[in-house]
Amino acid sequence: MDWLYILMPIAGVKIFWPGLVILGVGVGIIGGFFGMGGAWMVTPGLNILGFPMAFAIGTDIAHMAGKSLISTLRHGKFGNVDYKLGVIMIVGTVGGFEVGAQMVMWLERMGSVEAVVRYIYLALLFLIAWMVFHDVNKRRQKEKAARAAGKEVDALATGIEWHKTLHKIKIPPMVNLEVAGIYCSAWLPIGVSFFTGWLAGILGIGGGLIRMPALIYLLGCPTHVAVGTDLFEVMISGLYGAASYTYKGRTELVAAIIMLCGASLGAQVGCVATKYIKGYGIRIAFGLAVVGCAVSIAMKLLGANVKELRVAMDVGSTWLVLGLVSGLSLYIFIKMVQGAKAELAAKKTA
Amino acid sequence: MKRIKLALFSLLLALTVPGFALAAGGGGAPIVLVADTRKLDGIMAWWANLYNESHLYFTILTVVLIPTIGVCFGIIADIIMHWIGLDLKSRDLAEH
């Protein structure tokens, strides 16, 4: 079975290459569907396969850039990418990320960086999960109330409507974001992207996990446009990150290319699936992914703190992440196949 | 009231893991900064040598290769899906 292992020339470790393909396909599907890079799944996955942590991060970022490019092209063809919004947000994202990174340096000097980062991470994940499910719940309540009144709720209505309040800010210059269907002050997307960039800088992540819900709940983007526009941002930050990590010597190019082969196919499936799964379906699945991510981090931390539980928690959290990635990928894949079949059947009968 | 309770519960969940944060650092594996090219041949040896000689050239190669491979796969997938008969240019707006 030696042929199943490949020597990575830079990291100097032998890696089970089908594992790289499987991980690539999984994160490709999920990334293309949710509009995120998926570092929370891939970095631990690569680490489990045998990469040193620094190489796991660098390799993940390099493959993410390629995968996001494919997803952005596909979403662009669907009309899901608001390029104008994406470009405006880059300004805030870059500035915010730099401030966040400087704060990490400051916290490091204070000796409290680990604790602060972990607390923010966990609090943030729980907040996002709460936001998503609260939104779903409110939308159901609206549907219920409409049914009781003998009416039907507007198909485009949402549960949480914070964006409507934020759109009342009229500080010039005002921008018309045609694809997203938003007319607002340019300071709103800049402010939101600065905030999400700052959080990403502090947490040391790409930011898709935060930016996607922020685009929906704070800016009022339709879910599909939030997914596509976020992928456009991930692509740009991914390319910059890939260059930065590679220059520092922490990217295993062979592994990134193997993963990209799987991820490129998965990304297409994930993107096309957004055509067949309704916006609220995407939101619910996203909420579940966030909950799983938070629980796996809590389990890891618990294992690290309580020696007796270390092995059980490590194994448990690994299985949780892998199970979550497999389960979600399978769900998205099945929905995509069902949707494609229905579309082809409708075309035949037409 | 229900909303406040839910928010407090979410916050409490995050705060009921005190001290765990301190343990999150992890040991970290040793980082190899010079690739061992003795066991390699062909393109792998060329890659590893390029890495050892110049991180800058290796970075340029990576930044060029990754998007190129991505675009190639994207075009192949486009052709396959178009051949199957899927409409890849339009979608129905499902919600706001």
From TrEMBL, chain A:
Species per Swiss-Prot/TrEMBL record: Fundidesulfovibrio magnetotacticus
Keyword annotations: Cell membrane, Membrane, Transmembrane, Transmembrane helix
Localization, UniProt: Cell membrane; Membrane
PANTHER family named among the record's database cross-references: MEMBRANE TRANSPORTER PROTEIN MJ0441-RELATED, MEMBRANE TRANSPORTER PROTEIN YTNM-RELATED
Transmembrane segments: 20-42, 48-66, 87-107, 119-137, 198-219, 253-273, 280-303, 315-334
Membrane topology: Multi-pass membrane protein
UniProt-listed InterPro entries: TM_pro_TauE-like (IPR002781), TSUP/Inactive_protease-like (IPR051598)
Pfam family, one: TauE
Domain of life: Bacteria
Name by which UniProt lists this protein: Probable membrane transporter protein
Cellular component per GO, a single term: plasma membrane
Record family assignment: Belongs to the 4-toluene sulfonate uptake permease (TSUP) (TC 2.A.102) family.
TrEMBL record, chain B:
Transmembrane segments: 56-81
Highest taxon, organism lineage: Bacteria
Record's signal peptide: 1-23
Record keywords: Membrane, Signal, Transmembrane, Transmembrane helix
InterPro entries on file: DVU0150-like
Record protein name field: Uncharacterized protein
Species assigned in the record: Fundidesulfovibrio magnetotacticus
Taxonomic lineage: Bacteria, Pseudomonadati, Thermodesulfobacteriota, Desulfovibrionia, Desulfovibrionales
